[in-house]
Amino acid sequence: MNQNEQIARTIFSQISMSTKMACGIRKAVITDNGLMFQVGSGNPMKKIIVKLNSLDYYDVEMGKITRKGGLVWKIMETAENVDCFSLSEVIYHMVNK
User: Fold this and answer.
1) How many domains does the chain divide into?
2) Does residue 8 contact residue 35 with C-beta atoms inside 8 Å?
């Protein structure tokens, strides 16, 4: 198991099952130092990226891909330096605003 896979598995395990179900988390993909997954059921589909930063905290970003001028990542909300105990709550509140 490489480092990115290990980080992604750790992040996924630190998100509570109730948050995964309430937010409709699916289609998780391993990224550099993190994890990206789809949430909700709207159109366009929202995605969340959780990355491990240099301080051993998480940076969480919610956005969507728009087609205006090509495929563009539009950031809707961010949270920086989130600890593992707050990760589920931050994700839940981003999705359910």
Assistant:
1) 1
2) yes
